[in-house]
Amino acid sequence: MPEISRDEVAHLATLARIDLSDDELDHLAPQLSVILESVASITGVAGDDVAPTSHALPLTNVFREDVVTPCLTPEQALSGAPEVEEQRFSVPRILGEEQ
Amino acid sequence: MSETLVPFDEVLEAYDPAMGLEVHVELNTASKMFCGCPTEFGAEPNTQVCPTCLGLPGAMPVVNRRAVESAIRIGLALNCEIAEWCRFARKNYFYPDMPKNFQTSQYDEPICFEGHMDVEVDGETFRVEIERAHMEEDTGKSLHVGGATGRIHGADHSLVDYNRAGIPLIEIVTKPILGAGAKAPEVARAYVAQLRDLIVALGVSDARMDQGSIRADVNLSLSPKGSGTLGTRTETKNVNSLRSVERAVRFEMSRHAAVLGRGEAILQETRHWHEDTGVTTSGREKSDAEDYRYFPEPDLVPVAPSREWVEELRATLPENPTARRARLQAAWGFSDLEMRDTVGAGALDVIEQTIAAGTSPQAARKWWLGELARRANEQGVDVPDLAVTPADVARVQALVDEGSLNDKLARQVFDGLLAGEGSPDEVVAARGLAIVSDEGALSAAVDAAIAAHPDVADKIRDGKVAAAGALIGAVMKEMRGQADAGRVRELILEKLQ
Amino acid sequence: MGDWLRSTAAELADALAAGETTSVEVTRAYLDRIAAVDPAVHAFLHVDADGALAQAAASDERRAAGTLLSPLDGVPIAVKDVLTTAGLPTTCGSRILEGWVPPYDATVVRRLREAGLPILGKTNMDEFAMGSSTEHSAYGPTHNPWDLDRIPGGSGGGSAAAVAAFEAPLAIGTDTGGSIRQPGAVTGTVGVKPTYGGVSRYGLVALANSLDQAGPVTRTVLDAALLHEVIGGHDPLDSTSIDQPLPALVEAARQGATGDLSGLRIGVVTELSATGGQGGWQSGVMSRFQESVDLLVEAGAEVVEVSCPTFVHALATYYLILPAEASSNLAKFDAMRYGLRVWPEEGASAEDVMRATRDAGFGDEVKRRIILGTYALSSGYYDAYYGQAQKVRTLIARDFDAAFEKADVLVSPTAPTTAFRLGEKLDDPIAMYLNDLATIPANLAGVPGISVPSGLADEDGLPTGFQVLAPALADDRLYRVGAALEAALTARWGGPLLDRAPALEGGAA
Predict the structure, then answer these.
(1) Which of B309, C122, C143, C276 would staple C148 via disulfide (CB 3.0–4.6 Å)?
(2) A67 touches chain C (CB under 8 A)
(3) Per-residue pLDDT tens over the stretch C220-238
């Protein structure tokens, strides 16, 4: 199992949008390495013939009918917003482009 | 920011284009993909949201059955296989208009896969292979405030409306389209146009490119001519008209060739299409930072359409639009040009219905693509949206055929119909538009016209029959148009020869 | 007044029915108790005295009018702060949600309201349910009523401590890897993790969606069954909810309490004990466990040894699946729509604000698991980690299937040790994770489990727990066996275990 480097933790923090301080990075990298080492034990435990389980019970085809149900009011929808303008969520300027 | 471009013809001398098209179709379900919020376009901001589509902590998704049915019907119409078992997955990335910071989509298990559509360009057929069609959800919409242009750049903050978040989308992805050569731009356009027709025929979407209910992303790459390889591609986002699809392909081909010609490499990136200037500009670089960390959505269970369900849905498919057009063209005896005009005007359905009501194909075409197309143009509406029905047109033509109306009177009947004056017969009665068939009155009017225009009468007596037109016009004017012009001509010639 | 505090929920329901007390009187008694002892215990993050009393008054009116909503109408309850409550703050123990008041109720909360249970308040927890000690709450730890210097277990330490300290007769917990059962064990209370899909997760702020399950936290097995029947059953808002009626749980508890287990096969899982398992199993925990097994045999049960060899991989599997799902679930906390917003500097971009807010708003354990989960899902690692873990889950489920062919229920100690001291394992994640060794397999396979108090460890005089696991959908077996054990132990002790807990300063009880 690979050691997880400080740079790698920094990259993961970028992916996860967490602004980790230098101290946090120093602290986290070795901790994550220890955790990864301990979870490495499962490598190879299950062969290719084993199907993955993503649900504890095998349900399929759970649907709702295409029927409109009541919405929140705009006041409820915006009640937790840090900032509101023109009945919209006001957010800081967006740097990147839309997906 | 002007780009050096290579003229289109020169691009083709050196390179083969490869295209890939990703088309997002917004379904017209009543409720959203994973919750019961309505999907109406243009509602007040944040009035069509609930804990689920707003991504509130604790809320959970439940799949809309009708959205799954629409996905399967689209897949079947595209000759796809329908998965026996598939799942939703989370596509993880952060963006303020995405409430959960992951999009619930499908990843390696799309509901539809391995299909094709045959696209016709100038009589030549190109088979576009469909890689997959999968279900996903739309994002919210941002309004950028404080910038000069309303664009993202220069804005000091943005305002987000989540009404659109969670509206069901079907993303249809082609395999690389190779071998189109010079016709690549037209093939791209024709593919999207035909796909749109198919979506309309299926009735699964409003299919309004101008409102974003169909959005196309265009992938393009060039490879050295004959090399058989695939070059680095760019992805041009949100191309929102058929014309733009064609232009965007053309532009990117010329731009790629220019970059490659300078000995530089194409950057794998997202590009943005600018409708006004007809160019693309660089967007986001596709880097390793773009790691979507897909995994199966644990809040949803697999979708496993039974074969019985799939066959039930197959039975609801409309006739394939291409096949239908070919069948109707043959039955009606239209030329290719006539058929293209018919389809282009969106008049296929109304002409079909008019013919079904007893009108000859040529007469139906004449009214709908002539007089009525002109009226629709004046009113700024599409031909089928005029306040004239196929049954009305059929009745008007029947009156012409039995001699009760001539074309000029028929046009006045359409005036009445468009003004909401009732049925064709009611308009004829109310406006007194029936042709005068009283021989005595006609004969007197002809005699009067001959007397009033002796010079014209002399020419006709001398054998210049073409001059009769002037006398016919005079008679018709006298009769206020309510005469059979053919009979008037006969009378004039009888009297002067 | 004090009598009502020590009454079980079932007894309160009877007393209310007999007109011996009112919901307002009972609710007020609990609110007074909270005011007296919670400064020391810190089980609650938010107390809704006015709301609870209003709901109690409404219950009393219904009783007068003869329009009761459920057998527990009028019996107050505490709710873990991970379930959304319309009009009441829901923080999940995190700074990032400080002050957030949801505009909607979780299905479990809606069912409590529809059954007429006044909601006393929201209980403390490890931030986003990540932890086994409630020390990872951003609002300070909860203290174990048996020894205020010790942990109450976690993540639902608040709910367990509230019930153990007589601050509530009933509480709701959630269990992702043991967060109901392990706190139950270390506080001498009963905790049930129902079959996955048996109780709606709608409105439960997800930690790991494929593992999370809400359930009862109570002082007796019968009370748990009564509460389970209120909150359980199909919910169309949760796609993973089981569309089948619940088994007869209260009936099973009453039947078990008669003490007859003849014909029942009990499987002792080798891998979940000192003899065949990982980790350090405290000897006092093991001797209380053996004692309970002996009592079940006296009640007529037959004991078989079963081996579940892949259980040794359960912990590793869990610590790959949980962070992966959690890293995605917690992405929504981004300062855009609700919760904390931190500006690193004036004019910062949305992305900068997200990064700064998530750094300031999440605690160390949450960040640790988000980074770990991000890693496990990254391209290049998915197959080796998350993908592999999902396969091992299949093997663990198969081990359960095989074991349940030999035994009707499986048993083990709930946790390897009694409550440890606050701070003892705070910076040693692995040591902390080992607390959940015995409880995690049930979450991975989706099977139900209960923890019942089994006594006090000889070496430290602190509570130990006895875990019973049953096949999926057979939650009734938990109640039958749990009630039988409870009856036998209570008879031996001469009263409930909690009677032996020390009195709390400020509290008369």
Answers:
(1) C143
(2) no
(3) 999 999 999 999 999 999 9
